[in-house]
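Hi F.,

I've been meaning to write this up properly since the lab meeting, where we talked about keeping a consistent format for the predictions we share between groups. The idea is simple: the sequence comes first, exactly as it goes in, then the structure tokens exactly as they come out, then a line or two of notes. No screenshots and no reformatting. I'm using this chain as the first example so we have something concrete to point to.
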Amino acid sequence: MEKPLLAFTNKGIYCSAAKVYLDPWKPVDNAIITHGHADHSRWGNNRYITHHRNVPIITHRLGEIEVSGREWGETFTINGVQFSLHPAGHIIGSSQVRVEYKGEVWVFTGDYKTENDGISTPFEPLKCHTFITECTFGLPAFKWVPQDEVFSAINEWWAQNRSEGKTSVLFGYSLGKAQRLLKYLDTDIGKIYTHGAIENMTEVLRPLVDFPETSRITPETKKEALLGNIVLAPPSAHGSSWIRKMVPYETASASGWMTFRGARRRRAIDKGFVLSDHCDWQGLIESITATSAEKIICTHGYSDIFSRYLREQGYDARTEETQYEGELAELNSTKEEITSTN
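Output, unedited:
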């Protein structure tokens, strides 16, 4: 039996013809990285290739690494295998990886979304024979409303809290979600304060995007200065000693998981806004249709349910295990989030 172009191994997704891994979860010699989230770009690889907009992100996170940046659609050949990076629309600098060898084309999406968020390069559908898709929100229950409606609701919530003399604390992952929120907050309502982890990452991304002005929260920040204003913080800050200085406050989370009321209750969040950097059910289906792919490989998320649905629709679909977390990464504390409070 002929080897597949890409194989799922104990280190990651491997192209044996090129001796290259895509988003490996264990250290390897050569890694092509789709984006900067910790579950997809890990420390310890000898050489990294990624989109040039992702270079400052992963060097900020990983320190000194050997990394080269590529442009969208730029073809680079390794041992006769042609690779190119194409927009995934997930976060700034996020890519799909197109792999072509002897007339066969595979596409690995990493994480992706189809809605244009105004700060990431919009998702680009690619024709291929085999499509590797995430399934973070691969259930019909997940149906996103346009982001304009979500941001309008967020700003209304902030304005209401301000009228009541409360601080608004809005939780979002420090890379990607926080910057998407920041871009559309209404500064006519008040000032925007940030947790250190979010401020550090936003400083990395300011050369790429025109963000509103922010103020970093430090030990010297007075509670009175925060009243009526909004604080952007990572989920790990909820329930910490860091947040206690903000009383009285109202909390909210921006996440696809806010689709379910139980998720908000479990996290003791006052308000939930449904906003995800991943595809909803319909986005996944439309993306797969646009590829004209014959074979679909479903990874992290509701992969079993989603692949079964695809098989019922006539696709050659299966699941594969990975160590990617999708939006579950927003629920997990990281050292960067915990320690970057100043």
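Notes:
Residues 332-342 have pLDDT under 50 and may be disordered.
The first strand starts at residue 7 and ends at 8.

If this format works for you, I'll send the rest the same way.

G.
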